[in-house]
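The protein record passed on for reference:
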Amino acid sequence: MKNAFSMLRPLVLASASPRRRDFLESAGVLFTCMPATCPEPRPLPGEEPRLYAMRSAEAKARFVLDALSARRDGPAVLAADTIVILRGEGAASILGKPRDEEEALAMLTRLSGRTHEVATACCLAVDGRTVCFDDVTKVTFAPWPRPVLEAYVAGGDPMDKAGAYGIQGEGAFLVRGIEGSWSTVAGLPLDLVLEKLIQNDVLALKKR
């Protein structure tokens, strides 16, 4: 399939995620990678999880934009942050990447047999301003017993993923169903990202 888009300016992806790279490449978007190495902000007391995710994405975008300040070609920077949100236990819980196997197993045990939300927030920094947006998908886990979850954790797949699982890889078997965008769960709401890139003169449809 021929590429449907042309670049109006350079795009820098502020992420090392292979999944986000794959999504952009699959759409024919040209970009370079410069992962944000700044510390991720911590959630504030009582902060709505989706707002926290957008604040985190914006911090990453601004960090990389500052690092590119010497460039004269006006690059745009795209950053993203994905979190798992578990509601229904009083205050909403934010599940990020597990620190170790014990925490990964604890996360998966909480999610087993329940429905949770996956929010991916994005920030596009262009021409000195930031455009933040997000998307949320509901994910329902099958009620897998502890030995199954232990075996999944032992394989190492959960360790670099929010909520300790990846729907696009070995963790797909955990999921019984989703309501919303699959790409949001995997780390990038691709349709919204392309829409924002076009609206902010980073990307254009090729003329036929």
Summary: DSSP finds six helices and nine strands in the chain. The mean pLDDT is 93. The radius of gyration is 18 Å. The first strand starts at residue 5 and ends at 7.
